[in-house]
Amino acid sequence: MEERVFTFSGWLNHLLGLAEHSDKNFFVYQMLEHSALVILIVAVLALLATRNLKSVPSGLQNAIEWFVEGTLKLGADMMGEARARKYLPLIGTLGLFIFVSNMLGIIPGFESPTANINITLVMALIVFLYYNFEGIRANGFFHYFAHFAGPVKWLSPLMFPVEIVSHLSRIISLSFRLFGNVKGDDMFLLVMLLLVPPLLPLPAFFMLFFFGLLQTFIFMILTYVYISGAVVLEEESH
Question: For an engineered disulfide with 216, which of 1, 76, 99, 144 has Cβ 3.0 to 4.6 Å away?
């Protein structure tokens, strides 16, 4: 008799009366389903936190306000509070999505969307395109790309391609760092659950929670650094 292992994808298909995915499309559907679940969780949390706002926050409202204030302070230290507020929606949304995704992977039967290179690559491309767009808008097309050549004119033919490669490598750095760490955490948890009794992996859950939080912080701070470097060229050069 074939043994069935519980997964969120399998449960959702059974609930909706859908046929099992083919091997070719299984991972695509699984990625989309778990991503949709994360988006739903984030939307519900935002709705619950803002449904009944109080001057003295508590509970979920307090947690969300703490997150917003921490994100603002993180950006204000690099680019000033005004700019940090401008880019808060993007970085806050990325932070919430990544954190909830990382936490979802800790729950047996679920898989973190950030453990899929397609998801992390899309987020890295969004950051890459956005900070370059903001850099061009803030400084002008020619001025923005002129700083790629460096301060020494005779080194410009060497520095410009080096800077281009350096910026393109940020896509790989952002996507593969997050994907590799989260995928490794998920595999570590799977091995722990298979090798030891159910209650013994509890310390590992706390460790994975910390690592998930750390990876969220790293992605957010790097996004702030890239945007800051693009819109504040003078300070970057200094």
Answer: 99
